[in-house]
Every structure is written in structure tokens, then in C-alpha cells.
Specification:
about 500 residues
């Protein structure tokens, strides 16, 4: 859908620039251009300065770099407005050269955000103050030089090879970032990600203006509106997140790190926090277990190439896989010794209860079948349905392997923790009988990389949240077991 919408917008813009009546001048208004770009770029520059200061103050390299990117693009674009012909200057080459350079320079300043795993990017993040100061100073120098000697560089002409060589790579980079933000939206369902994705795509598409060769056409004006509107939309999304969370670093972290685990945590509804908080009240060990399993499962899904909604529901199912234990008596749940056969049967019901709870919510129902199947075994001896290898949902098999590893590697009421190597050896030994081999292999690879244990979901269910106000909209309380209703009350 994102690709189709982006291609449609690009096609309309290109058609307007090249082959339609929109390619002809419709409103030759240098004064309008002066005020539109000057005010818009000035506002964006101030916003970038505030973000840069926040990054420096809170020692957040990503935030500071984002602020520098906004400032670089804005100050060079400001020249485009100030040099609009017949306002402060006569006809100059700077009016076109400046806008051609703005986005490429900004993307260069933002290399650590575009490719954060590069060694160079890591160096820049460690030396964020000199990096950001250097780029802001360099852009200010370029802007000042263009204003002082507005005809020093040749004018950039639309449709030419040099202009396209400079502009189009920045378009591609912006669209790649936009796609990553959209994927975060599908995981976390926070509107800020969607707005940021749209805004970045709009900024990127504005670079297509260089495919045309006529100024002041309708499509030319549309490209300018996309540029200014995209920056303001992205800034608005950040400000909205800051206002809601009272934390700039929290609202902007997933946008910069592109981490779906963080995106999931910020997008969780109050009822999910309520479920996890209820588990903590009943048994803190179970609560800590489910948040670790959720992170490990999502890291495994990432390694396997899961995206969007599939990754979201894998994370939700892993986070809520033991929610049925709210209906299990605490005496059984926290028993320090072996369970009796009757107690084992009572414990096993938690998979069905969890499935029933999640099935009452349209928002959580896609995760329900994974919760029901997370104790099925490849050899068919699992529960509750006795599914065999080809019948077990693969995503449920991932949760099963993550669940088993975490249960073995951490102390439980009935035994002390095994060493991680011992737990991995047991997973390998029983792959093909108890756990799906492909799922086990993927989980072990994630563990070998040292991922899945960063406690990024540790705040789920902690602190203050008004889950009772959202119950009616998210889930049907009357359909839950009485013990579960009491736990959530």
C-alpha cells in the first residue's frame, strides 16, 4: 500500500512537471515564493535548533543529529526564499542552486541515522557535538556564501544530468527512511510514526521537481508545498509525541533507532499494560518472564524477516502468552515444589483461557491462536489440541522456543536457573520432538548475537496507566473468567 501510494504521488508529480497543463506557469509570484519559503524554512530551523539543544542536554546522539539535519536543510533552503527574484535580489543562480543542495547536504549530515551500523556512524554518534556543530557551521557557511555571491555557482537547471545526479539519491534515501517509519507504525500503531512516514516521503518526493524544467507551474508549487509540509508534519509528529509522553527522548527514540521492540512498547494499549500489571500483582516472576519472552520472540521474528503486522502480533502474543494464568490459583502458580497431576491439568488450562480472553477483542484476536498453541509439541504430545509439526503455527513455535529457553535460564518457584549454555543445549536436544527445529535455530542465533535480553519492554505494566477507561473499547470483560475480571479490577 505504501509503495502504491508513493508511486502514485510520484507519477502525478512527474506528470505535472513534464506532460500536462500543470507543467506551464500558473502563478508567477516571486513575492509569494519569498514569504512561503522564508517563513517555512525559518520555522523549521528554529524547530531543529530546539531538537539539537534537547539532544545535547540529554546526551542523546540520535536526537542531536536529527536536529542538525533539520537545521542544515532549513538554512540552505532559506537562501532559496531570500533570493527569490525581484524581492531582495535580482535574478540569481543561488535561487535554484540553494534548493538543489539543501536535501543532499541534510542527508549527508544524517548519515548516522540512515546507516547507524556503519563504523563511521558509530564514531559520529560518539562525537555528536563536533559532528553536529561542523555540519551546522558548514551549512551556514554555504548559505552565507550563496547570499554574498549569489552568482558564484552556475544555476541549477531542471531536467539536466548534473541536477538529477545530485537530487535523486536524496529522494531515494528519504523514501527508504519513510518506509522504515511505516513499518514501525504497523508494529506500534502510533500515529506519530505514520505522520512521520508521510512527512519524510513528502520531503523525498519534493526532490522530483528537478525532473521538470519550468518554474512557477502548478506542479512546481506542489513540490514546494510537499517539502515544507513534510518537514512541518514530521516536526508536528515529534511535538505531539513529546506533549503526550512528556519525554522528547521517548517520543523520538523509535523514529531514530527504528527498533520495532520500542515501537511495540510505545504503541501498547492501556488494557495490555493492565494485563501485565495484573500478572505482576499475582506473580512477579511470571510478569518478568513474559516481557523477556516478548523481546526475544520479536528479535527472532526480525531475524527471520518478519515485518509489520506479523511482527506486531508475534510480540503481542509472546507478551500475553501466559495471560491465562490470571485464572490459575496463586497457590498453584507460585508453588515451590512439583505440581500434582490435578494441579498440572489446572495449569494447562491457561492456554485455552488466554485464547478465550484475547478472542473477545478484535484488536487482539490475531494473537489469540498463537497464545493457544504455544504449548503444542512437534511430536503431537503437547496441549491443548495435540497439534503436530505441520499443524502448529510457525509463530507459535517461535514463542514456544523462547518461552522454554527463558523458563530454563531464569530461576522459577520450583527450581534455580540453568546456565544459558545448558538451556540452549536442551533446546537443541529436543528440537524435532518438542520444539520446531527452524524456530530453535533462529532463537539460538539471536541469543548468540546477544539480543533479546536488553529489557526494552521492562516498563510494560509499570507506573500509572488508566486501563479501566479503555476496557470497554478494547475487550469484553464479561466474557472473561471471574478470576481474570477480579485481577483486572
Amino acid at each position: 500500500m505504501w509503495a502504491a501510494a508513493t508511486l502514485a504521488m510520484a507519477a502525478l508529480l512527474v506528470a505535472g512537471l513534464k506532460w500536462s497543463p500543470l507543467a506551464h506557469p500558473v502563478w508567477v509570484a516571486p513575492v509569494g515564493l519569498f514569504w512561503f519559503v522564508t517563513v517555512g524554512a525559518g520555522l523549521c530551523w528554529v524547530g531543529g535548533l530546539l531538537v539539537l539543544r534537547a539532544g545535547w542536554r540529554d546526551q542523546l546522539a540520535e536526537v542531536a543529529i536529527l536536529g542538525a539535519v533539520i537545521m542544515v536543510a532549513s538554512i540552505v533552503a532559506l537562501v532559496h526564499g531570500l533570493t527569490a527574484p525581484r524581492v531582495l535580489y535580482g535574478p540569481t543562480s543561488a535561487v535554484s542552486t540553494s534548493i538543489l543542495l539543501a536535501n543532499p547536504l541534510a542527508m549527508a549530515a544524517g548519515v548516522p541515522l540512515i546507516a547507524p551500523k556503519l563504523r563511521f556512524s558509530m564514531w559520529a554518534a560518539r562525537h555528536v557535538r563536533p559532528w553536529t556543530v561542523a555540519w551546522v557551521a558548514a551549512s551556514a557557511t554555504v548559505a552565507a556564501a550563496l547570499l554574498i555571491a549569489p552568482n558564484a555557482l552556475p544555476a541549477a537547471a531542471g531536467g539536466t544530468v548534473p541536477a538529477l545526479t545530485i537530487a535523486l539519491p536524496a529522494v531515494v534515501a528519504a523514501l527508504a527512511i519513510s518506509l522504515r517509519e511505516l513499518r514501525l507504525y504497523w508494529v506500534g500503531r502510533k500515529k506519530a510514526y505514520l505522520v512521520a512516514s508521510i512527512g519524510i516521503a513528502a520531503v523525498g518526493l519534493s526532490g522530483l521537481v528537478w525532473l521538470g524544467d519550468t518554474a512557477f507551474s502548478a506542479a512546481w508549487w506542489a513540490a514546494h508545498a510537499l517539502d515544507v509540509g513534510g518537514v512541518l508534519a514530521g516536526a508536528g509528529a515529534i511535538l505531539a509525541g513529546y506533549h503526550a509522553d512528556r519525554s522528547l527522548s521517548k517520543s523520538i527514540a523509535p523514529i531514530l533507532s527504528r527498533d520495532p521492540v520500542i515501537a511495540l512498547e510505545l504503541g501498547l494499549s492501556p488494557i495490555i499494560h493492565g494485563f501485565v500489571a495484573a500478572l505482576a500483582t499475582k506473580d512477579a516472576i511470571t510478569r518478568d518472564h513474559v516481557v523477556r519472552v516478548a523481546e526475544l520472540a520479536m528479535r527472532t521474528g526480525e531475524r527471520l524477516g518478519f515485518r509489520g503486522s506479523r511482527l506486531r502480533y508475534l510480540g503481542l502474543a509472546a507478551l500475553l502468552h501466559d495471560i491465562g494464568k490470571l485464572d490459575v490459583p496463586a497457590a498453584i502458580l507460585t508453588k515451590p515444589g512439583p505440581l500434582s497431576p490435578a494441579e498440572i491439568e489446572r495449569m494447562r488450562v491457561h492456554t485455552v483461557v488466554g485464547w478465550e480472553i484475547l478472542s473477545t477483542s478484535p484488536l487482539l484476536a490475531p494473537a489469540a491462536r498463537l497464545v493457544r498453541a504455544h504449548h503444542e509439541r512437534v511430536d503431537g504430545t503437547g496441549y491443548p489440541d495435540g497439534l503436530k509439526e505441520g499443524e502448529i503455527p510457525f509463530d507459535a513455535a517461535i514463542i514456544a522456543a523462547c518461552d522454554a529457553y527463558d523458563a530454563m535460564a531464569h530461576t522459577r518457584h520450583y527450581r534455580t536457573a540453568l546456565e544459558p549454555e545448558q538451556a540452549i543445549a536442551i533446546l537443541r536436544e529436543h528440537a524435532g520432538t518438542q520444539w520446531l527445529p527452524k524456530a530453535v535455530d533462529a532463537v539460538i542465533l539471536v541469543l548468540s548475537d546477544g539480543l533479546g535480553g536488553q529489557a526494552l519492554l521492562d516498563n510494560v505494566g509499570r507506573g500509572e496507566f488508566e486501563h479501566t477507561q479503555a476496557l470497554g473499547a478494547d475487550i469484553c470483560l464479561d466474557a472473561m473468567p471471574v478470576a481474570t475480571q477480579q485481577a483486572l479490577a
